[in-house]
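Sat 14:20. Reprocessing the chain from the morning session after the first attempt stalled halfway. Input below, unchanged.
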Amino acid sequence: MALVRLEFEPPLAALTLARPARHNSLVPELLRDLLAALAAVRARPEARALILQAEGRSFSTGGDLRGFQDHQADLAGYAHELVGLLNEAILALADLPIPSVAAVHGQVTGGALGLVLAADLVLVAPAGTFTPYYATVGFSPDGGWTAMLPAVIGPRRAAAALLLDQAITAEHAVAWGLAERCVPAADLAAEARAAARRLAGLAPGSLRRARLLLRGAGLAERLEAERAQFLAQLATPEARRGLQRFLEARPA
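Finished this time. Tokens:
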């Protein structure tokens, strides 16, 4: 079963993360499905705007730590693949020729933040939170926490979130520019759809050039630097111990 659901209703396309039993946590299979879905969106000229959303209680809790546990025999190879696929998905979403709206409810943790940062507009429900968890587990940041977030909310705020492992609430996300506005959970899907329809009705060439200029250069290199540091930290005893403690505290 596909872990990402793709629906077309021209002029809109909608991508739904569909691994709710695991809080839409990221594994290679989900990221490959996401990349295939983004390629399918790119191939549909009638699609003029994209909605990115998720099933279940969380938007996404980042990399599935059980996946790391299941690949102890080749942890570096697994992490290299997982973070590489995440970086590809972030870049594919940011590079789409059409604008995107992320509808965020519940938790966003770890590398899943990159999917939100790659969207052009972000709507968040009041219970939405954005939490790194890297310093708690003992991993190094990925998913744009250093490559993208400081430019959005400011380097000091990004540093505080990462170094103190603090959650960014929906209220702060709006105040700091991570999200456009906070929307009641019951209205989130409809508001995201309305925003996407608004984007779909505007001049596509103008939007495409504005998004290109806003994104700037060098994102792929910054994301690759995150992957390199992630792999280096993962090889340390600190990371191995932290992963084991985290998993023991959270039974399957």
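The domain at 4-203+218-249 is CATH 3.90.226.10 (2-enoyl-CoA Hydratase; Chain A, domain 1).
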